[in-house]
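Thread: "does anyone have the structure for this chain?"

Original post by V.I.:
We have the sequence but no experimental structure in hand. Need at least a predicted one for the grant figures.
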Amino acid sequence: MRIGNRTLGARLRVVLEPDIALGPGKADLLEAIRTQGSIAAAGRSLGMSYKRAWGLVENMNSDFATPLVRTTKGGKAFGGAELSETGERVLNLYRRMEVRTDKAIKTDLAALRRLLRDITKGK
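Reply from O.Q.:
Generated one for you, tokens below.
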């Protein structure tokens, strides 16, 4: 998963409609929900509060025709969350777009990086 500007290359943000976007943060959250099985655990793994993670899930669920994340209530068996079929499709499409973007800009990115100052020589 990517965090901040520590990963070289493009960080894709796709605006689907005015005020509806999908970017690396939401994609990472969906991926974390897939692996953690919980919105709270997914948020923690990304350094995100439960409230923030839950708010993003609610927004994504309302933005798409069908919810991306399904939840089960807590209790003795504890609650949980998983990606719906639509959630899996959205995440896979976004990740594919990231790969294609990286390939499309590879040469130009290398040219840009060659224009940077040499940080090994000091400031």
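V.I.: this helps a lot. The beta strands are 14-17, 20-22, 69-72, 80-83.
O.Q.: and The first strand starts at residue 14 and ends at 17.
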